[in-house]
């Protein structure tokens, strides 16, 4: 029953091949589904995964494409290969000597690595932020305003008879969400699976996800808040003006029917995506949806859940929260954590050109951030930790190539519903883990900070 | 003739699989620089699949390849593109105090690129 | 550096060893208290100081998913109370739900060196263990919420007693918990499955499982005794917060007969009056039952005025709070295992119910005949943050101060309480019992709560002050496992304590019953459920009782 024991059984296949190992119940960390039922076949000569049973299309790409790139140096400074020790020294010096250093990323690494990143930022009195700020950060802010009706995904599997997806396209972003947790599975109180559930999709595009839905509602773009607020009113028995259809593209009748279903279901779920958080209204949209779910609890049991993206972005939220009290956008410049989205979030800090050094861990703002932010990254020393070359590692002053979590290293990952899972690595990598690099940087930073701050 | 439309960047399966191959690889570049438009809009703008279009926002511009989508899948006036460097090029940095730039629902003008 | 230490000249309060304020030396070596040390030992002169074992918190909420949700929920509370880094310690934030580092340091600055989180669903075991690891100075553990587990309820329903025992033993191993926790037995299923309803009577049968709350409590008590768990089932009774609930509490205690049982935050379960109307005090009825039954232990769950946060596996009770405050509210369901609710709250002196709750807690303390079994807690942060402990100690030790406070609060409530008539003042020795020796004994921690030879060298040295709130708010020295952590009121090093847990033996064939249930009804694989030892970091398993 020990996981360690289960992990380390390189059960050789009964056939002839001695260079094949099986890793059962491994976990895929590509998306927030964090499916832990992967049966991996590993070619230990080539150090690559050749089969990933149960993996979806994204999971297969994740497992098959993370091979060892022997050409890539472990550490580089300004594009030239250096020793890991030299790179760690340079990274530590850069961070300690900066006036306003930031740490960013963290969604595609283990909680163990995330903890080291917070420790470094605490020591250097920098700013730490995660990809949450450009994902469900607005939902996090809405949560702070109104709370949340939430659940682990097994509750949906066992109980949900009404499942609503809003502003998300899990068929493409989280391909097993339907099959594993929310639509197809037969559960304790929904023994016939999909037959016992009613599925609604609300989106401005008729995406591939519409295929599983009993009902598809297509509002005009940017009108989510208006619709959600109208639903709240209807839930409370208030009248809605007929102009709602012209405004939002959704008829009163459609809304009334939906309210009827929501109030009369046994266990309802609202899953929501970045169609709410990344559009006009942002945290107000998420807040309206969270409040709708809360309101419905006067009538029945209703829950709401953001469908989180990257493998361990939920872990990053948890670690940063328990260590600092705040989920993202945390600044240590006064010697203690402060939180202020818009001020201490990375898009803003970079775009305004306020920071003079950045450590980017397991994410690629160099290709995803607004233009102004990327331009500033080119002007300052950037330290990057990444498993593959990216736009960010390309512009970095110090670039570390690290091993891949869940494929090469163990550690803890939180599923989108806050369920923590331990990873079972498939094969060893010659590259160090994020945790190892960050721990080494932390130790060196600690020495430098002690000398600088406390020994004068 | 430029026309204003709403750009909605998002995830897609091919964006997800190609980023695993590597974000500096050709496949990812191709996927993230292919925009989907409503079939009627394309007809009106005299565009066919594979044509290059120039998208322009207040902060930047980019040239991408276009591909048609049926009317019921993608409403007229909307463009979908998988997240990537081209969508970043168009993204304004103001977050309205939230930390989140407007990453979906961006107003852009569309012209055929020569 | 020598690992030997001698504390000299201090006034020692060590009720386990019948030492009541004598001046004597305490010798420490290798983290334990010893008979004597060599002349090389470092000497701490505790002249004019009071020396006690480190405090032991038997019931608080400091780590894990619900705590982290409550923490994330309240930035407005953190920003008023920053916790700066020092040369030796990490930064954090305080408030009612502090960050993990601040939690550990602040417990230490009250002289506490051990604390148990009272309710975590086993599915979140890794989370709680990681947070506890990041909670510095103190030793820690947690109680596993198992009382409403669907699989276990099925076993109880089917009378499969032997399997129930094996399954609970398996679970405690799998999640590294310290004992079983039962919260609002039978209440999760109507909440999740019957449109947010609740169980109302200890003998009401579930229409899903056909068992009553009493059946659950009874079965868990037997299992704890059979396994020899060091601490019996830790029970949060039905009907928390409702007027008239004391009868449920008495019935819960009667269910135990003469078997061991711990009732959590008993103040919240000591209300007379009619359901739906203002509560009346049943403090006397409750405390008399506990006084007369040595098999029962309880912690008080004192309410203190000011900000708190309701956080509980009793989801309906959090909903009741929110219905009253109309502020933000979290409900969080854990598959097959538990419900959970979180709601910020503020106990106000002028509010009848709040003032009466405060008075009932004090009644229970002051009418207690056995401080070893009626021990100190605020159900932090439900009744109040643990940072209010010094003030509560002063309320117990200082009658004049108490009377001043009584005169400031809702007088209608005071007229319904016998608090004004209670003249008792706790002695330092009694305080040492309810905050240290008693909880350690209830928990079966033989090496904690006292200063005898062989005990863990967890020691607090307070300045002997007249004002007990000031005294207990800032120990001059705190020594954890023989290591001085606070010296002259300042942290001189960082220190990470250990995880305390149990390892009852079980028959591995129980996994044959568990595995199919996991495959059908859990969302993670059976093989990925049990927590590996490395999440324990530094740890100690507490021996089981010999039967």
- Uncertain segments of chain C are none
**Separation, N- and C-terminal Cα atoms of chain B:** 13 Å
Q: Compute the gyration radius of chain B: what is it?
A: 14 Å
Number of strands of chain B: 6
What does this protein look like?
The complex is a heterotrimer of chains A (456), B (114) and C (547). Chain A is α/β, with parallel strands linked by helices. Chain A contains 19 helices and 21 strands. Chain A folds into three domains: 3-65, no CATH class; 75-135 and 311-454, 3-Layer(aba) Sandwich (Rossmann fold); 137-306, Dimethylsulfoxide Reductase, domain 2 (3-Layer(aba) Sandwich), CATH 3.40.228. Chain A is globular. In chain A, 65% of the residues are buried. With 114 residues, chain B is of the alpha/beta class. Helix content of chain B is 25%, strand content 34%. Chain B contains four helices and six strands. In chain C, 33% of the residues lie in helices and 22% in strands. Chain C is built from 18 helices and 28 strands. Chain C has an eight-stranded parallel sheet with strand order 8-11-12-13-14-15-18-22. In chain C, strand 25 and strand 26 (490-491) form a beta hairpin. At the A-C interface, helix 1, helix 4, helix 5, strand 9 and helix 6 of A face helix 1, strand 9, strand 10, helix 3 and helix 4 of C.
How would you summarize this macromolecular structure in one to three sentences?
The complex is a heterotrimer of chains A (456), B (114) and C (547). By secondary structure, chain A is α/β, with parallel strands linked by helices.
């Amino acid at each position: 029953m020990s996981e360690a024991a289960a992990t380390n059984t390189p059960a050789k296949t009964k056939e002839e091949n001695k260079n094949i190992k099986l890793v059962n119940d491994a976990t895929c960390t590509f998306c927030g589904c964090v499916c832990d039922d992967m049966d991996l076949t590993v070619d230990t000569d080539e150090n690559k995964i050749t089969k990933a049973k149960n993996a979806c299309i994204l999971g297969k790409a994740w497992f098959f494409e993370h091979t060892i790139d022997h050409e890539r140096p472990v550490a580089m400074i300004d594009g030239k290969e250096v020793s890991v020790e030299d790179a760690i020294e340079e990274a530590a010096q850069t961070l300690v000597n900066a006036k306003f250093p930031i740490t960013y990323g963290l969604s595609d690494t283990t909680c163990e690595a995330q903890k080291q990143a917070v420790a470094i930022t605490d020591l250097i009195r920098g700013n730490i932020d995660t990809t949450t700020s450009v994902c469900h950060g607005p939902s996090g802010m809405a949560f702070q305003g109104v709370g949340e009706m939430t659940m682990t995904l097994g509750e949906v599997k066992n109980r949900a008879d009404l499942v609503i997806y809003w502003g998300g396209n899990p068929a493409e972003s989280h391909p097993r969400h339907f099959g594993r947790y929310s639509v197809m599975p037969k559960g304790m109180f929904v023994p016939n699976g999909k037959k016992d559930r009613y599925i609604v999709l609300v989106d401005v595009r008729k995406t591939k996800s519409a295929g599983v839905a009993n009902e598809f509602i297509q509002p005009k773009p940017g009108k989510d808040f208006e619709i959600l607020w109208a639903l709240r009113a209807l839930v409370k028995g208030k009248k809605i003006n007929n102009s709602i259809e012209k405004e939002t593209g959704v008829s009163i009748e459609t809304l009334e029917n939906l309210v009827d279903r929501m109030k009369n279901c046994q266990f309802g779920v609202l899953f929501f995506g970045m169609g709410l958080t990344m559009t006009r209204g942002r945290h107000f949209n998420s807040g309206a949806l969270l409040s709708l779910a809360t309101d419905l609890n006067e009538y029945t049991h209703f829950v709401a859940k953001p469908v989180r993206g990257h493998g361990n972005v939920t872990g990053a939220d948890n670690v940063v929260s328990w260590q600092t009290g705040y989920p993202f956008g945390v600044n240590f410049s006064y010697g203690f954590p402060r939180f202020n989205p818009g001020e201490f979030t990375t898009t803003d800090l970079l775009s305004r050109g306020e920071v003079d050094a950045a450590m980017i861990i397991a994410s690629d703002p160099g290709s995803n951030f607004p233009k102004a932010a990327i331009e500033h990254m080119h002007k300052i020393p950037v330290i990057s930790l990444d498993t593959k070359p990216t736009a960010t590692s390309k512009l970095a002053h110090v670039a570390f190539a690290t091993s891949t979590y869940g494929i090469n290293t163990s550690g803890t990952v939180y599923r989108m519903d806050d369920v923590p899972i331990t990873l079972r690595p498939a094969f060893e990598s010659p590259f160090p883990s994020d945790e190892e690099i960050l721990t080494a940087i932390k130790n060196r930073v600690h020495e430098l900070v002690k000398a600088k701050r406390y020994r004068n | 003739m430029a026309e204003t439309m709403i750009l909605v960047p998002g995830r897609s399966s091919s964006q997800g699989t190609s980023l695993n191959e590597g974000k500096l690889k050709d496949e990812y570049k191709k996927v993230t620089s292919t925009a989907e438009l409503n079939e009627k809009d394309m007809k009106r703008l005299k565009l066919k699949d594979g044509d290059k279009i120039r998208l322009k926002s207040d902060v930047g511009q980019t040239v991408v390849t276009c591909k048609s989508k049926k009317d019921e899948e993608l409403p007229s006036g909307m463009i979908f593109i998988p997240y990537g460097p081209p969508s970043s090029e168009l993204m304004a940095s103001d977050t309205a105090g939230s930390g989140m730039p407007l990453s979906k629902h961006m107003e852009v003008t569309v012209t055929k690129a020569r | 550096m020598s690992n030997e230490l001698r504390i000299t000249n201090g006034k020692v309060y060590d009720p386990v060893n019948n030492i009541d304020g004598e001046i004597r030396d305490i010798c420490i070596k290798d983290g334990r208290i010893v008979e004597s040390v060599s002349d090389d030992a470092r000497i701490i002169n505790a002249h004019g100081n009071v020396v006690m074992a480190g405090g032991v918190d038997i019931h608080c909420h400091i780590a894990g998913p619900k705590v982290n949700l409550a923490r994330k929920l309240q930035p407005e509370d953190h920003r008023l109370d920053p916790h700066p880094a020092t040369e030796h310690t990490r930064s954090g934030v305080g408030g009612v739900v502090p960050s993990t580092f601040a939690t550990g340091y602040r417990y230490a600055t009250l002289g506490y060196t051990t604390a148990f989180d009272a309710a975590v669903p086993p599915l979140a075991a890794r989370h709680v263990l990681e947070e506890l690891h990041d909670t510095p100075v103190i030793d820690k553990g947690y109680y596993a919420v198992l009382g409403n587990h669907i699989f276990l309820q099925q076993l109880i329903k089917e009378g499969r007693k032997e399997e129930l025992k094996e399954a609970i033993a398996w679970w405690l191993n799998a999640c590294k918990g310290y004992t079983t926790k039962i919260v609002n037995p039978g209440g999760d299923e109507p909440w999740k499955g019957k449109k947010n309803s609740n169980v109302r009577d200890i003998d009401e049968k579930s229409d899903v499982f056909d068992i009553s709350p009493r059946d659950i409590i009874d079965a868990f008590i037997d299992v704890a005794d059979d396994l020899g768990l060091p601490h019996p089932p830790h029970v949060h009774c039905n009907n928390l917060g409702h007027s008239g609930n004391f009868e449920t509490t008495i019935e819960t205690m009667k269910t135990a007969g003469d078997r061991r049982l711990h009732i959590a935050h008993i103040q919240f379960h000591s209300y007379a009056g009619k359901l739906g109307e203002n509560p009346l005090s049943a403090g006397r009825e409750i405390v008399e039952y506990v006084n007369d039954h040595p098999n029962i232990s309880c912690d008080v769950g004192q309410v203190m005025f000011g900000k708190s946060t309701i956080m509980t596996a009793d989801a309906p009770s959090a909903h009741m709070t929110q219905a009253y405050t109309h502020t933000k509210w979290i409900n969080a369901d854990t598959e097959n295992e538990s419900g959970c609710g979180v709601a910020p709250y503020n106990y106000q002196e002028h509010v009848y119910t709040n003032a009466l709750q405060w008075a009932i807690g004090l009644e229970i303390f002051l009418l207690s005949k056995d401080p070893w079994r009626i021990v100190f807690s605020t159900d932090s942060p439900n009744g109040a943050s643990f940072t209010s402990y010094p003030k509560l100690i002063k309320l117990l030790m200082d009658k004049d101060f108490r009377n001043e406070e009584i005169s400031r609060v809702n007088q209608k409530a005071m007229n319904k309480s016998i608090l004004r008539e209670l003249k008792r003042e706790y002695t330092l020795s009694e305080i040492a019992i309810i905050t240290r020796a008693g909880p350690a004994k209830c928990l079966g921690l033989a090496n904690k709560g006292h200063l005898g030879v062989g005990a863990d060298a967890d020691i607090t040295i307070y300045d002997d002050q007249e004002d007990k709130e000031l005294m207990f708010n800032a120990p001059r020295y705190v020594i954890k496992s023989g290591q001085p952590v606070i010296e002259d009121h300042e942290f001189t090093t960082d220190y990470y304590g250990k995880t305390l847990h149990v390892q009852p033996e079980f028959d591995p064939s129980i996994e044959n019953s568990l595995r199919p249930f996991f495959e059908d009804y859990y969302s993670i694989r059976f093989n990925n459920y049990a927590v590996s030892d490395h999440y324990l970091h530094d740890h100690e398993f507490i021996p089981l009782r010999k039967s």
